[in-house]
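Quick start: what a row looks like.
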Amino acid sequence: MSVTPINGKKESSPDHLKDLPAELVEQLSKQYVEKGPNGSRLNDALLAQLDEGEKSIDELLVGMYKETGEVLKRHTLQNALARLVKGGSIKKEGQGRYTKAQ
């Protein structure tokens, strides 16, 4: 089975998509298709960065670049942080500073 992701290129199907009909795969988010049902590499990497203590958004952007080699958009990082705060994994400690929840 192959899937046609959002970018339109045909790729071989990841294991978590093998038994799904093409009609369903077309409705899945790009994140789910790429990363599967077990979560986001971004969230895992952010939590690892915050293991080192309180950090600002700028420090997280630099740390993420050093760890992954990817340049994240500030808005993407802010959205991920907001989801982690809402989920109780991290706490906002002031203007743009975050720590891991205890």
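That is the whole record. The beta strands are 2-3, 11-12, 55-56, 90-94, 97-100. The domain at 41-100 is CATH 1.10.10.10 (Arc Repressor Mutant, subunit A).
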